[in-house]
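User: Could you go from structure to sequence for me? I need the amino acid at each position, not a summary. Structure tokens:
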């Protein structure tokens, strides 16, 4: 009885792996990291460096840890919401969101630079804006699906 020759079968094409992510958890971590970074920056500026972080907004307003924490959380969740909407409604949601978030971050520097009391307060408040902005932009961008992966 002749032995059958081994057959070589072509590999079965497989679909590219679907990106696995848990955006809710990853994005919630970005919110937490942004809040921690903002509080760390505030702790360096206010208690350690001795800045009062006072701004003119209707009257004189002292910027404390609670205000830093609350505003950071609000901004991070707003960025998350906009990113989620853009991901669902546009083909290039991540890129569109990054441009919008960068513009908002740069424009937000106008407030501390014009309303801060004294140079130290102006620079300190601007550093808070930059720390939060960069953390949220880089963190949430990392969690977004790119157009190539969708």
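Assistant: Here is the amino acid at each position, in order:
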């Amino acid at each position: 009885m002749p032995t059958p020759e081994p057959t070589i079968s072509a590999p079965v094409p497989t679909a590219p792996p679907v990106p696995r992510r848990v955006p809710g958890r990853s994005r919630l971590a970005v919110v937490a990291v942004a809040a921690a970074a903002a509080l760390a920056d505030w702790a360096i500026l206010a208690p350690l460096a001795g800045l009062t972080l006072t701004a003119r907004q209707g009257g004189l307003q002292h910027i404390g840890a609670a205000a830093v924490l609350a505003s950071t959380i609000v901004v991070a969740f707003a960025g998350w919401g906009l990113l989620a909407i853009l991901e669902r409604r546009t083909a290039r949601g991540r890129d569109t969101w990054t441009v919008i978030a960068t513009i908002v971050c740069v424009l937000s520097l106008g407030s501390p630079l014009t309303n801060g009391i004294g140079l130290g307060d102006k620079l300190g408040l601007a550093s808070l804006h930059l720390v939060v902005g960069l953390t949220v932009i880089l963190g949430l961008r990392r969690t977004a699906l790119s157009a190539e992966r969708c």
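One structural detail worth keeping in mind: The two ends are 54 Å apart (CA to CA).
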